[in-house]
Amino acid sequence: MKRRSCLPSETGSPQNSPPETKHSRWEEENSEDISEEEEEFFDAPDEPYCEEEDPPAKPHQCEAACVSVFTEPSPPVRVTITQVSSGSLSLCWDTPAGEVENYIVTCSSEEDSSWQELTTHTNSLTVSSLKPGVCYSLQVSTQLKNGRRSKPTVTSSCTKTHMESLLEDLGLEQHYKEKLSLTTVLQIDEKTINDESSK
Predict the structure, then answer these.
(1) Region Disordered: start and end of each range (predicted)?
(2) What is the CATH number of the domain that holds 127?
(3) Phi-psi region of 197 (alpha: psi -120 to 50; beta: other; left: phi over 0)
(4) 56, 59, 65, 163 from 62: Cα distances, Å
(5) CA dihedral in degrees (20, 24, 28, 33; nearest 10)?
(6) For residue 193, which phi and psi values (nearest 5 degrees)?
(7) Quick one: 92 and 156 in the same domain?
(8) 27 lies in some domain
């Protein structure tokens, strides 16, 4: 018995091959177009490339803070009573260090509830319109241009009575605290009387 071998003929049907997909067909059809686009992209002349940069940051600016510094004024020193009468008191003082706009002098008394405030640009002042025989408190303060005042320097003095003023005018103020007789005031003694009578 003869056996026949079945061999595929060359003209027969092709061997099983993987099926063609739509994707592979699209690649074949468009491969030439893609390659041409790539050539055009890479063959394009160089063009300047500008990269946008952020604007430079502004330097940090510190906000100015206003700080007021006040100078404490110095009070007057060595306030001295220079003259006393029955209706006025005169005083002077040493000028303190620093710039001084003016001086404020306050005169007050607990006896008659009086009060005065005077301003002067010099280092001396006379307080008038006072009552005789009354003790007054005098306060002297320094005032700057900004209106600030120093602590006051305090002194006190009493005005003279009418009798003291009269004796001062007569040159007999040293006898005010003594008992004065008419003979003492007129400086009359026995010898003076005898001399006058002999004439």
Answers:
(1) 1-59
(2) 2.60.40.10
(3) alpha
(4) 18, 9, 9, 74
(5) 160
(6) -65, -45
(7) yes
(8) no
